[in-house]
Structure formats: structure tokens, C-alpha cells
Amino acid sequence: MSKYNQDIEWIDLSNAPRGTSETRSRVRSHAMKKTAAARRASTGWGKVNTRQLPEFSITQTFGQTGSHVRPRAQRPAVTYNEIIPPASMNTLSTFHLGHPVDNRLFRPMSLTGVELLASEVGINILDLSALTEIQCGWTACAVLVSRGDYINGLVGPSRRRSTYLHSVASRYGSSPCLDAALRCVAVRARKVLGPPAQDCDERESLQYVAALQLLQKSMDHVEERKQPEVLAAINLLSLFELLRYTREQAWSLHICGAARWIRARGPGSFGSDFDMRLVLSLVSAITHESMRRNEACFLAEASWQQMLRSSILPSEAFSTRSHLAVSLCCIMVQTPGLLKDVSAVINKPRLASSHSLRRCFRRVRDFRRDLLSWRLQYDSATLIFPAPNVREPESDDVRVELLGSFYSLMISCSRLMGALNVNVIHIFEDEAVTLANEMIKLEDNLSSTNRSASFYIGQKLIVARSALETTGIWRDASHHQAGTTEPSKFNAWVSALLSPQM
After folding, report:
1. 3-state SS string over 85-122?
2. Nearest Cα to 259, choosing from 31, 432, 251?
3. Rg for the chain (alpha carbons), in Å?
């Protein structure tokens, strides 16, 4: 009878068929009596569920209002910043995670790829993405040296751009030579941008030697040498040399090696987005190196011009893959060949026939026509897509950089036109000087508002300064009987154009 009384409890519902709140509470309590007793008897009753994260304070702001959730209890423990460094919490930047967290309950995901490299070296290679597109050649090194810590404003999480380096990061671990090149650049960048470690110099040397050895091993392999990761490794090693500031010859060898690698593969071998971004990132450096070597650039050939134009993304207005940017690249790569041919006509007038002189003048005239046509397209595009009032650091809009490139090309074109026909030398010299002053003014206005564009145009200022420094002798009326300017004047300008002061 006692057992019967313990298992069954009689409740009178005659006056309230559906029960009162009190009777319903008694029913629920009796129904859960055995379950509650079993739970209290277990060893885990009252303990925190270790498969869940602890409760913490999250404050999120939406405009002028926000929501705030308070924890029910607080435990003395370490904070999130002690578990995850602040630099690793970029994806949580809209939240404030300030409540202490028990590190026994929180286990961060294991690091892989470039994240692991960043944790080992102390810098994320993606922070250098802007440098892979805004450096135009060895003149970039001259700008960095002359402006001290200017590089600090060009790199960092807020300065990242969508460049080939993002694709390289996703390939980390798939190619030994590419991995070594990435580590090499990361170690060097860490030394340049922050306080270096005690063994930084030794570590840098070891990484560089390993990168060169693995790159040579890949080049010796018949199949591996054709992979785009090899070109990416060469490009990264040229960036490494650029950050060392004093190894101009080594940088030149890497750029020449990249040019030979691209040419050997042929224009039909570049079809993927990664391939296109790689080649476009090297166009300025290859063009600059061709000029220094007094050679025509192979990218000016028709088949390569077609390949470059195939990289255009019609939906983009002012990115590096836009019609305006790629079209200007196609014009720019003609400059080394024109400079080489005009130099031959000026320095060897007796060997140059009147026919070759006219042909050279027509080529420069067509070059000028293409530039002026491009400027009309640029002006039209700026009316349709006006520039934002404030440019974000990670913006892919390069309209200002394109304008600076146009100025530098027009200055060179005006000098070449005047050199081939002294009858119009003053007209084109006035144009060159005006454009040079406009270019200097443009760069000066950008120095405090757009660091990356200022750095890019700063490399092009060598063209403007070479024209201003030699304008006095250039306007001299003396000339050769063939109607061309004197070789000494022309060579003085070319020397100033190709020899940036370190």
C-alpha cells in the first residue's frame, strides 16, 4: 500500500475539470520526480556543458542603437586576446569580445597555410599584396629609400588588394619553390616593417638560399618548369630583392628570368585568372627593364598584345583588369622599342636613311595618336563613373595611377617627337614641361590622401624630372643637318630617364 501511495497521487478535478495552475504544477512535478532524482544521482549534475562555449558579452552597434547581452555568471579566467592575438580577429572586428573566457572550454582551430606562416614569421604575406601591383621597377626601390618609412603606409591588413598574391596564398603547400619564396619574402618583410628577431639576418640568408635552390630544381624539371607557381616564385623573389634596396643586379636577373619564362611558354599558354594576374603584375617591370637594356619589349608583338587584351574584364571600370588599364599597358610596352629605334636614328644619322627616319617618325606619331585616343576614353569613363569622395585603402580603383602613367608616356612621346624633328621641338617641349609640372602637382596632392597612388606615381616622376632637368639644353637651336637633335642632348635625357638616384 505504501508503494501504491508513493507512485500515485490523487488530484481532485471535480470543481475545475481543466485544473488550476496549482494542480497543473503538481502534475508536472510528480511526472518529473523520477527523472530529477536520477539526474541528481549522476556525477555530472550541476556542471558546465563542456561541449558549448561559455556565455560572454557581445556588444554590436547598428548605427546609433545596439544590443547588449549580459552573462548570467562570470568566472575568473583568461581573455580572448590571450587566446587569439588581436591581429587574428579581423573577421570579428564588428564585435567587442571583452568577457573573460575559460581557456579549458575554448580551443582555437589549428592554423594552416599562410596563417601558419604568419604565426611563425610574425607578418601575413597578404599584407604585402598592394606592393605586387604598384611597383614599376627598380625605381620603386629609389622611392622607398628616399622616403624613409614610407613603406609602412603601403602594407598592412587595411591595405590589402585583390592581386595574384591571394591566389598564391591558396596554393601554399602545393609547390616547394613557391613555399620557399613566400617564406623568404615574409622573413624580409618582417625585418623591414618591424623590430627584427635576433637571428633575422641568418634566417633570411638561409631562406633565400633555399628558395634559389628549389627554384632551380623546379626549372630543371621538365614538367614543373611549366607550372605558373614557378613564375610566381620568380616574381616573389624579385620583390624580395626590391625590399633589400641595394641588390639591383639580382632584381634585374629575376625580372629578365620572368620575361624569358613568359616568352618561352608562348601567348597561348595563359588562360586562367591566376596566369593573367601574374603576367599583368610583371608588365611594368619587364617594360622598364627592356628600356634599361635598350631592347624592344616582346609584349609589343601582335600575339602578345592579343593575349593582354584577353585579360580585360568588361564589367570593371578602373581596376587593373579594366579596359582602360589593359589598353594603356598595351601602349606602354611599345615604349622600349620606340626609344631603341629613335636612339639608333639620332646616334647614327649617316647610317639612317631618310626612309627609316620617316618610318620612325610615323611610329612615334601613331604612338601619340593612341595615347590621345586613350585619354578621350578615360575622360568619358570618369564622367560615367565619378571618383568617390573618399577612397578606401583596399579599393581596386586605379584611375589616378592610370592618369600618372598617361602623363609619363606623353612626356616621353613629346621628347621623341621633338628629337626627330627639330622644327617642332619647341612645341613639343612646351607640352612635355607642362605635363611634367602637372604630374609633380598630382603626386604632391596625393601624398597625404592616397599613399599607394602617390608611391606609384612617385616612381613615374623620374620621367617628369628628366624632362625638367634637361629642358634647357633641349631647347638649344643647334641640330644635325638631317633635322634631328644632337646625340649629346638626346643621350643626356635618356641617361637621366634611366638612371634613378638612390
Report:
1. CHHHCHHHCCCEECCCCCCCCCCCCCCCHHHHHHHHHC
2. 251
3. 33
Residue ranges of the alpha helices (H) in 171-224?
Answer: 176-193, 200-220
Are 497 and 463 spatial neighbours (Cβ–Cβ below 8 Å)?
yes
Helix (H/G/I), strand (E/B), else coil: 230: helix
* Residue from 5, 86, 151, 146 nearest 452 by CA: 151
Bridge partners of 62, per DSSP, are: 65
Q: Is 502 helix (H, G, I), strand (E, B) or coil?
A: coil
Round to whole Å and give the CA distance between 254 and 411.
29
3-state secondary structure of 308: helix
Task: Return the exposure string of 404-425: e unless at least 16 CB atoms fall within 10 Å of the residue's CB, then b.
Answer: bbbbbbbbbbbbbbbbbbbeeb
The C-alpha cell that represents 261 in the structure block: 619564362
Taking CA atoms, 319 is separated from 277, 290, 500, in Å, by 12, 25, 28
- Cell 596625393 found at: 446
User: Are the CB atoms for 331 and 409 separated by under 8 Å?
Assistant: yes
DSSP string, 387-417: PPSS--TT----HHHHHHHHHHHHHHHHHHH
- Whether residue 451 contacts residue 392, with contact meaning beta carbons closer than 8 Å, is answered with no
3-class DSSP state for residue 57? coil
pLDDT (tens digit per residue) in 305-325: 999 999 999 998 888 899 999
Q: Enumerate residues 6+ apart whose C-beta is below 8 A from 151.
A: 131, 144, 192, 193
Q: Is 208 exposed, middle or buried (0-12, 13-18, 19+ CB in 10 A)?
A: buried
Look at residues 468, 470, 360 and name the one whose alpha carbon lies nearest to residue 407.
468
Alpha helices in 138-175 (DSSP H): 139-146, 164-170
In angstroms, rounded to a whole number, what is the distance separating the alpha carbons of residues 171 and 229? 8
Angle at 202 between CA 200 and CA 206, to 5 degrees: 115
What cell was used for 454? 602617390
The C-alpha cell that represents 145 in the structure block: 629609400
Answer whether 453's CB lies under 8 Å from 404's CB: yes
pLDDT of residue 107 exceeding 50? no
Give the span between the Cα atoms of 77 and 15, in whole angstroms: 56
The 3-state DSSP class for residue 65 equals strand
Condensed to tens digits (0 to 9), the pLDDT of residues 333-392 reads 999 999 999 999 888 766 667 778 889 999 999 999 999 999 999 999 999 988 876 666
Largest CA distance in the chain: 135
Q: In the chain, what percentage of residues exceed pLDDT 90?
A: 34
